Automatic annotation (TrEMBL), chain A:
It comes from the Bacteria. Pfam families: Cas_CT1975. It comes from Couchioplanes caeruleus subsp. caeruleus. This is Type I-E CRISPR-associated protein Cas7/Cse4/CasC. InterPro entries: CRISPR-assoc_prot_CT1975.
Automatic annotation (TrEMBL), chain B:
This is Type I-E CRISPR-associated protein Cas5/CasD. It comes from the Bacteria. The keyword Nucleotide-binding does not apply. Gene3D superfamilies: 3.30.70.2660.
Length: 372, 237
């Protein structure tokens, strides 16, 4: 059987920004190679990807993570049969109970809430609603096995990618097929403080001196190495549909390349595009190339040509790892901006992002096949 | 007996053995249950599958580069952003490198090594957002776990080795399964019995802490200090 794993490596420069902050408002950091680096957590970037999916995927392919699943299903029941509107909330409760997703009776006049965030695909919500409507029409109780099955097939693409853990109904867990690493800067950073004053417009008119308020915003700027890997075979196991798998892979590539966590976006207007994207298709295992940047790129005070240096370092390290371990990717595609990242072009086929995602999608389709 | 050696390194790792609720801790070294889980994932075992074959494996780890603890603050919200979930604190080990050793029957270790080079499920260092940097397996070797851990070359990063260049050898800590006859042990709830989410179970593991001295490949002795060198050619008369 052909194994298919897609590794995505991205170099991306962000100007002064605070994409992802900790509980004291500082941009997150981590030490690597003995020096402090800017860090954006995997969770922050996965959320950005999930939000971007709404642009690239059909609603039916997606899911919703909510505690208020009762409300969602009741709305679908009313949509399927408006005559059931008055009973919709109660029907939603009974179908969720049958599926084992709801343990306690909702409080009076409150919509049914699960104890935890429940990640159901829109298709799964629809099928649960259909079950409830059918039971109301036939005046039968809802079969627990059918309800469980409805909640456990037709997974949405985002569930198949990022996984679902349901604390007390373990038979509907889904293991994630995508790993996203924390993004870290390829160089040393120290967080900096921006001291600001805000002027009170009315006092200004009165020619009174002094600020209305003062404060600081913490930030850093960095060239990030971002890495994610898609296990296409495991994704296909969960989705059970080659066409959906291809759509998922293509949407992920676009969304991961173009999305960015929204932290302090309006303060810093830091929305950039990646400088370079390298996609490896592998048939053995995923390889994270972060080791290229264990020795930080450039001195802290030398920012000239940092991206070019990072691109050269990544290109050289990729070749070294491939040589040392006899690992040859089955295919490599690159999207890059300008000459500075030209060193990466030698690794594979250079294409604009849209064509790159299509090329990857077509190759994946050929490997998982329509029938398998 | 043979020994399968693994290099566990990456910007972040997390090896929790006693986390509950909103604080997700990490130990300072890879846990046995974590590494058994990694091997099980490589093999394609599901959480609900029995771990029969992997349970008798013996385990030890050497702390080649201790790294530092990173506390990560984590919020979760519903996709519409309206509902916030409990805040959690996740602890990671940043910038660490370990030599882990697993000993057992040679045939089993060979198959595990193959599985690591073509894993069925994606591998990660304790938490899914922590993919390993570079390949994990250092191969299957003859001998005893203790002696391999005591003698295998230092796995720390180049910068770390160079920072110690004045020292011909470094003292590294080893945490390994206790054998009969080991006098002093500590225990941790770290012997995986089942990863099945319906009845996840760990029993107690007896651990021995010991040290080994490993040569530093970056050792570069500073020239001897002799203040009379500058007077080369001069003599007192």
């Amino acid at each position: 059987m052909t194994r298919s794993i897609i590794d995505v490596h991205i170099l991306q420069t962000v100007p002064p920004s605070n994409l992802n902050r900790d509980d004291s408002g500082s941009p997150k950091t981590a030490v690597y190679g003995g020096v402090r680096r800017a860090r954006v957590s995997s969770q922050a970037w996965k959320r950005a990807v999930r939000l971007a999916f709404e642009e690239y995927l059909d609603d039916a392919d997606l899911g919703e993570r909510t505690k208020r699943v009762g409300e969602a299903i009741a709305a679908r029941i009313s949509g399927l049969d408006p005559a059931l509107d008055s009973r919709a909330a109660a029907l939603a409760v009974s179908v969720l109970k049958a599926a084992g997703l709801l343990k306690k009776e909702p409080r009076k006049d409150k919509p049914a809430e699960t104890d935890y965030l429940l990640f159901l695909s829109h298709r799964q919500q629809q099928r649960l609603a259909e079950l409830a409507v059918r039971s109301a029409h036939d005046d039968t109780t809802i079969d627990a096995r059918t309800a469980k099955e409805a909640a456990n097939t037709a997974h949405s693409i985002d569930i198949a990618m990022f996984g679902r853990m349901v604390a007390d109904v373990s038979d509907i867990n889904v293991d994630a097929a995508v790993q996203v690493a924390h993004a870290i800067s390829v160089h040393h950073v120290e967080n900096e403080f921006d001291y600001f004053t805000a002027v009170d417009d009315r006092k200004y008119d009165l020619q009174e001196s002094g600020a209305g308020m003062i404060g600081t915003v913490e930030f850093n700027s960095s060239t990030l190495y971002r890495y994610a890997t898609i296990d296409v075979d495991r994704l296909h196991d969960t989705l059970g549909d080659p066409a959906a798998t291809r759509r998922a892979v293509e949407a992920f590539l676009r969304a991961y390349a173009l999305s960015m966590p929204t932290g302090k976006r309006n303060t810093f207007a830091n929305g950039t595009r990646p400088d370079a994207i390298v996609v490896h298709l592998r048939d053995t295992r995923a390889i994270n190339l972060v080791g290229a940047f264990e020795e930080p790129v450039g001195r802290a005070d030398d920012t000239r040509g940092r991206v070019a240096q990072a691109a050269r370092t990544l290109a050289a390290y990729t070749a070294e790892v491939h040589d040392a371990y006899g690992e040859r990717p089955a295919a490599t595609w690159i999207t890059h901006v300008g000459d500075r990242t030209g060193a990466l072009a030698a690794l594979g086929t250079v294409l604009p992002l849209n064509e790159l995602t299509e090329a990857v999608g077509a190759t994946i389709a050929g490997r998982i096949g329509p029938g398998r | 007996m043979s020994v399968l050696l693994l290099r566990l390194a990456g910007p972040l790792q997390a090896w929790g053995t006693r986390s509950r609720f909103a604080h997700r801790h990490t130990d300072v070294a890879p846990s046995k249950s974590g590494v058994i889980g990694l091997l099980a994932a490589a093999r394609g075992l599901r959480r609900t599958d029995p771990l029969t074959e992997l349970l008798p494996l013996r385990f030890g780890v050497r702390i080649d580069q201790p790294g530092e603890i990173l506390r990560d603050f984590h919020v979760a919200r519903t996709l519409d952003g309206r509902t916030s979930m409990p805040l959690t604190y996740r602890h990671y080990l940043a910038d660490a490198a370990f030599l882990a050793a697993v000993s057992g029957p040679p045939a089993l270790l060979d198959s595990l090594q193959q599985a690591l080079s073509r894993p069925y499920f994606p591998l990660f260092l304790g938490r899914r957002s922590c993919p390993p940097a570079g390949p994990v397996s250092l191969g299957v070797h003859d001998g005893m776990l203790r002696e391999r851990l005591a003698t295998w070359p230092w796995q720390a990063a180049g910068w770390k080795q160079r920072r110690q260049r004045g020292h011909p050898a470094v003292r590294l800590e080893i945490l390994r399964d206790a054998e009969s006859g080991d006098p002093l042990t500590e225990t941790a709830p770290d012997q995986a019995v089942s990863f099945d989410p319906r009845h996840r179970r760990h029993s107690w593991r007896s651990v021995v802490r010991e040290h080994t001295d490993i040569p530093n490949p970056a050792h570069h002795p500073a020239p001897g200090h002799d203040p009379m060198d500058v007077l080369e050619g001069w003599t007192c008369s």
